[in-house]
Design brief:
Glycosyltransferase, 2 domains, 327 residues, disordered N terminus
């Protein structure tokens, strides 16, 4: 059959770097569909549902190591399993990617390097030197996204003043306001509410010099403006939001904040309602659940508090305790 026949389709390779494509005729397609259906039916649970693992990149283990060191309660065995997960995913060029077959990515690479350094791996080890060179080639810490900068700020490795301001008072806005948390997706507001609490307290753990990340700043950290760059054109959405953030930062410097306590109480109540009984964690997504743990600690909840204990248990329920590849 000619390759330009309408009965043939071209399927992209699962490995983009190979550049190979495949063809199949109708009977082969039907057979593949049947096998896929049979495989799905084999995995169906007795009550009719399916549950499959969402495979992730190294950033989740990296974030967790950072969290343990911020908390100051490092489980050495768990940390070792996380670092092995990270090391297994280092690419030949020294970096880490965020999807299978993808190139090195700056956020994943910075967090992996930082997690390994916190765990005790010397910056002079060959694979750490390769990682550092890759990170600097990608632009270093100044090029990571806001969420990565937040975790760095918690450990004193990025200035809080250059992070976007998240005023906790937003939770008090009425539903008819142009901006309101229920005009966001569920995932977004579950991220934002604990972040607003964290933004208020800015709970920072200072690290010893040998654990810091000065070497990942291409131009150094002294007298450097790390604000997000503006667009060259004056009137853009990006510039509008950046100017709005400038205004919020100016207001944040005013000592008198009449609604701050009320807003913190409401944000705490909102979060507690969604991590209590009947919940498997805040929005049941890793970032929101991790942010909730940090926010609870920032609010002063002791480890013995039932809400914090449950949030921790829910979060640890996300672990896949595979002896060959913990994740």
């Amino acid at each position: 059959m000619a390759t330009n026949s309408p009965n043939l389709i071209s399927l992209p390779s699962a490995r983009p770097e190979t550049g190979i494509s495949y063809t199949a005729n109708d009977s082969q397609i039907a057979s593949a569909i049947f096998q896929a259906q049979e495989n799905l039916l084999r995995q169906q649970k007795p009550d009719g549902h399916w549950c499959g693992e969402l495979f992730v990149d190294s950033t989740l283990c990296s974030d967790y190591v950072l969290y343990l060191h911020w908390l100051g309660e490092v489980d050495r065995d768990l940390q070792e399993r996380c670092t092995q997960h990270i090391l297994q995913r280092q690419l030949p060029d020294g970096g880490w990617n965020i999807y299978f077959g993808g190139p090195s990515e700056i956020n994943a690479s910075v967090k992996a390097y930082f997690a390994l350094k916190l765990a005790g791996y010397s910056a002079d080890l060959p694979f750490m030197r390769e990682a550092r060179a890759n990170i600097l080639r990608l632009g270093g810490v100044p090029r990571v996204n806001t969420f990565s900068k937040l975790y760095l700020a918690l450990l004193g490795q990025f200035p809080w003043k250059y992070l976007p301001t998240i005023p906790v008072e937003m939770i008090l806005l009425p539903t008819w306001a142009p901006f309101h948390i229920y005009k966001m997706s569920s995932w977004s507001r579950a991220m934002l509410v604990p972040l607003a609490i964290i933004n208020h307290f800015k709970p920072t753990r200072e690290l010893p010099g040998e654990k810091q990340l000065h070497e990942l700043y291409p131009l150094g950290t002294e007298h450097k403006d790390f604000r997000l760059p503006r667009d060259e054109r004056t009137f853009t959405w990006r510039n509008l939001f950046l100017r709005g953030d400038d205004a919020l930062k100016m207001l944040h410097r005013i000592p008198w904040k009449p609604f701050r306590r009320l807003a913190l109480e409401e944000a705490e109540r909102w979060m507690m309602e969604r991590i209590g009984d009947g919940s498997d964690g805040l929005a049941t997504v890793y970032p929101a659940m991790l942010n909730a743990l940090i926010a609870l600690h920032a609010l002063g909840y002791p480890n013995s508090h039932p809400a914090l204990a449950k949030a921790k248990k829910d979060f640890e329920g996300l672990f896949v305790n595979d002896p060959e590849d913990f994740r």
